[in-house]
Amino acid sequence: MSGVEAAKRLAARTAVDAFVKNGFKLGIGSGSTVVYAVERIAERARAENLQLTCVPSSFQARQLIIEHGLLLSDLERTPELDLAIDGADEVDEKLTLIKGGGGCLLQEKIVVNAAKEFVVVADYRKNSGALGQQWKKGVPIEVLPLAYRPVQKEIETRFGGTAKLRMAKAKAGPLVTDNGMFIIDWEFEESPTDGWTKIGMELNNIPGVVEHGLFIGCAKKAYFGNEDGTVSER
Ligand SMILES: O=C(CO)[C@H](O)[C@H](O)COP(=O)(O)O
């Protein structure tokens, strides 16, 4: 296992061991670090006979829950969650996150919002002083396909930087999310000195924007796996 993969695994296992309790209703995030969290949740559920209910935040998360034999639910049957566990693309010193590198930010934000607590699991590359220092691909913004051009133009005019339509990797044309939307990656010029709240609210007010990947004031704790086998907590 590479250094980065070992770091992801360590962070995920540490978070699951610290936070997951019997009877919990869990929100399961998306991405490659969450795979290790689900692995550990399933291991503990078997070993300790934990009764857990899992609500996915993406198609990938749903598959992970099923593959690991965990109890699958949804927000209709389980609208209140005890804990959400998810990865992040970047975490700043105030626990403001960029999420959506894997294109799942909308359902992730809904699941996080339904949870009493939200814990982030990540490797050392995501540990940042200010957003944009580590993650260079911008803030992912999920948009209604018919609105992507005016949204791109409005973002660039209002906030500067470059708003790029994310293209699919193994399909011609744009990436289409689990919700049938497009993603615009907004490469901003610099982190605002007064925080991201105002920009987050303004992004949500642009007609055609479904949700953005700035997660502000919702994470309780972040675990970062380090290259030397230690875990940093914030
Ligand atoms: O927000 C996400 C997906 O939309 C992921 O949590 C984020 O991209 C981190 O992924 P990984 O654990 O693979 O680094």
Notable traits:
alpha/beta, 234 residues, 14 strands, 4-stranded antiparallel sheet, Rossmann fold, binds ribulose-5-phosphate, 7-stranded mixed sheet, single chain, Alpha-Beta Plaits, 2 domains
Could you give the topology of this structure?
Layout: H1 3-19, E1 25-28, H2 32-48, E2 53-56, H3 59-67, E3 71-72, E4 81-86, E5 90-91, E6 97-98, H4 105-114, E7 115-123, E8 139-143, H5 148-159, E9 162-165, E10 182-187, H6 197-204, E11 209-212, E12 214-215, E13 221-225, E14 231-233
Parallel strand pairs: 1-2, 1-4, 2-3, 4-7, 7-13
Antiparallel strand pairs: 5-6, 6-12, 8-10, 8-11, 9-10, 13-14
Ribulose-5-phosphate binds at residues 29-33, 86-89, 99-105, 108.
CATH class of the largest domain reads: Alpha Beta
How many structural domains can be distinguished in the coordinates?
2
Order of helices and strands: HEHEHEEEEHEEHEEHEEEE
Give the CA-based shape: globular
Radius of gyration: 17 Å
Low-confidence stretches: none
Please give the count of helices. Answer: 6
Proportion in helices: 25-40%
Ligand names: ribulose-5-phosphate
Q: How many strand segments?
A: 14
